[in-house]
Design a protein that fits this description.
By secondary structure, the protein is of the alpha/beta class. The chain is 24% helix and 12% strand. It has two domains: 193 residues, Rossmann fold (3-Layer(aba) Sandwich), CATH 3.40.50; 120 residues, Cytochrome-c3 Hydrogenase, Chain A, domain 2 (Irregular), CATH 4.10.480.10.
Length: 335
């Protein structure tokens, strides 16, 4: 029988939302899911019974090498304040800053995984003036470095694996850990920001139920409208790297399917867009945030053509909260 992968999960500066999301994994038996995936939780702040002296003994065993750490999973941003001391966040009962524990444990771990955008880039914890000096494990927003530094590599030779999202989809977390368990996650399987490519090579736009409205540039004007939310309501689904509309949340939903614009929460800096999340900044009437690989001139030309060709049905439905005009039923004469 294959030895299970030991996963040590620490909670740093964040809301715990990624752990909450993880508990929504598509299973009726979460411990059995982990066991079947070849994963063993050494410790998790919400799921483990051990605390106090028991936890401290485990951490010391890990650092000393008596208990192997196959994966150090960190959820939440690393709080370096005040003035680099890390004393805004002390591990309870130790008087030692969490950033010191993370550095020591990262030094003995076979793999290090950032769970969520806070642990990956700093995320919401680093918003605004960033009074807590929050950063990610190996990035500070989109700048390499973070707590562990640009040159850091775990014992496996990999950089920090950034399972980014706010929160993460449970499938992204479990599948990343499974890939590490069976040795199938190599450097080539990470994108340029060290996110697992199995979800980061997709765009939220892929599979969006509003794609017909996007194609005709039939735009929503208020949150309850069925139309595309890119032009007026701040949606960044054409730029956001994630598979949210093809790997649905809770088996049936996503932000855009629920009527909310994609805020690109898997990307560095999403927490400080410089505008309200439900507004699309424009220059000369043209959205600034265009699809990642489309030249502006092409977008303007295609938009003008698409809007002039928009069917009446699409125009009317785009500004309604339900289908007002259904597609015409007609014989297609297909053979």
């Amino acid at each position: 029988m294959t030895t299970p992968l030991n996963v040590l999960w620490l909670q740093s500066g964040g809301c715990g939302g990624c752990s909450m999301s993880l508990l929504n994994a598509d299973t009726a038996d979460f411990p059995a899911l982990l066991e079947a995936a070849g994963l063993r939780l050494l410790w998790h702040p919400s799921l483990s019974l051990e605390s106090g002296a028991e936890l401290l003994a485990l951490l010391e065993d890990c650092i000393a090498g008596r208990t192997p750490v196959d994966v150090l999973a960190v959820e939440g941003a690393l709080l370096r304040g005040p003035e680099g001391t890390g004393r805004f966040h002390l591990l309870a009962g130790t008087g030692v800053p969490m950033i010191h524990w993370v550095r020591r444990l990262a030094g003995v771990a076979k793999h290090v995984v950032a769970i969520g955008s806070c642990a990956a880039w700093g995320g919401i914890s680093a918003t605004g003036a960033n009074a807590t000096e929050a950063c990610g494990l190996q990035y500070e927003d989109d700048l390499p470095g973070g707590l562990l530094g640009t040159a850091f590599r775990s014992a496996s030779g990999l950089p920090v694996v950034n399972v980014a999202g706010c929160p993460t989809h449970p499938g992204w977390v479990v599948e990343s850990l499974m890939a590490l368990a069976d040795g199938s996650l190599a450097a080539a399987d990470l994108d340029t920001l060290n996110r697992p490519r199995f979800y980061a090579d997709q765009l939220v736009h892929h599979g969006c139920t509003r794609n017909e409205y996007y194609e005709f540039k039939a735009s929503a004007h208020k949150p309850s409208d069925l139309g595309c939310m890119m032009e007026h309501l701040g949606c960044k689904g054409t730029q956001a790297h994630a598979d949210c509309n093809t790997r649905l949340w809770n088996g049936e939903g996503s932000c855009t399917r629920g009527g909310y614009a994609c805020i690109s929460c898997t990307e560095p800096g999403f927490q400080d867009p410089g505008h309200a999340y439900d507004q699309t900044p424009k220059l000369a009437g043209i959205p600034i945030g265009l699809p990642t690989d489309m030249p502006k001139a092409w977008f303007v030309a295609l938009s003008s053509l698409a809007k002039s060709a928009t069917p009446r049905r699409v125009k009317q439905n785009a500004l309604a909260d339900h289908v007002v005009v259904p597609p015409v039923a007609k014989r297609t004469r297909l053979k």
